[in-house]
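pasting for ref
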Amino acid sequence: MTRTQRWTLVATVLASATVFLDSTIVNVALPRIGRDLPHSLVGVLEGQTYVYTGYLLSLSTLLILAGALTDAYGRRRMFMFGLAGFGLMSALCGLAPNLETLVVLRVLQGVAGAFLVPGSLALITAGFDGPLRGRAFGIWSGASSGTTLLGPAIGGILVDTVSWRAAFLINVPIVAVALYATWRHVPESRSDAPPAGFDWLGAIVVGLAVGGLAFGTVYGQQREWRDPVAYVVLAIGAIATIALPFLMARRRNPLIPLSLFKSRAFSTINISTLLIYGALYTVGYNSALFIQGTLGYTATAAGLVGVPGTVLLAALSTRFGTLAGRYGPRLFLIVGPLVMAAGVLLYARVPATSTAWQLRPDAPSTYIPSTAYLVDFLPASIVFGIGLGILVAPLTAALMASVPVANAGLASSINNAISRIGPQLAGALIFVAVTAVFYTSLASRLPGTDTGSESLRAEVSPLNRPSTSAPGEVAAQARYASADAFHTAMLIAAGLLVAGAAANAVGLERQLGRKESGD
């Protein structure tokens, strides 16, 4: 690996890690933010929600536009623009005087972050070849995924020991190092034939499509699908999505060349990404609620549940990225999701009686760690982490091998948009099934109880801790009903992973990603 390649890797890993880290690290800071910051235009709960979703929505909405700009006007230039903007917005977020200002700054932070993920992958694709490229993708994938999964733990430490403002300010020195590395050591690269005119109309339609689907899903879940605004926004997003290919076919210099999707590998990878990341979202969202809300784990104990998997992901990504560059990613993209599915099925056996703590026999008022974690969660976390380590870097390598280098930024941004928006849509539909299973199970356990009544549903809900006003028998049976609902979610997630593996087996060629290595 040359000096330039090493610095390119440092810059891209640091930049993308901050973007992924910020999508999770702020979550644990939200309660403290709500207590500390004054507010006048929005309520505390609404403001906290916008602090989290505003970042994700602007990031997701602009990913494809940022990827196209990256390829057209210089990957290094647009990457540095994103770094500078992200660092500035992070600093201002850490200094925000009130909740409303923080919401606006978080939206702008997401805008800047949209240039960093596609820019990172495009710079790696342009600067590395063969097995070395696979190894670079492995390092990038392990660092990015690891920081995402460790975000809540890092955020908790910063909030408890320093301040919630540190969750934002920690980005500033990291971005400064990445900016210096890019400025001094990373060469410029761009598409060999930049378009004569940028497709701004296409950019607007893409923004309406991605932004409409993203905002409609998030807003609908927040309002429990009782607000018609969510359906209107989703309809706008759906119409824009349907119109997009027809518009791209008529444009002289389309934002998204339809020729990209003539690549069987590119189309297959995006389909498998939708399925696999739908499973990841389902596992992450439902397990977080179940472990804390139903089983009563503390936030710290719940965060530790996934640590073994995170460690394995970080340890294995580089190795499997190198192997994918040498032998091609197809085999790993089949085996990885199947191993992950096995881990998810182990989660599906966690009983409603599992708990992180138990009373010490010789001291009834003293709690000690329970062996339930070792039996119920540790095996699942290990198997799931191994599968994720097998999958992540080869998936990135396969994506970048499926398109010309000239379209690297755009291709990565399309895939990232799919990995963010698709799972949220799938997750919303899956949670409908989870809710139905919960109340059906509760009704079977409590014959004669009206589980459709508003009063009962205000006291017990899927995967959450029952209200203190809930009758004892209802609260006890709700725990078992939540376990049934959680098991359903895990079975659906395992099915999505198997479907993702099948899509890769059918759609990917054996030689994908192997030509450059001479194999």
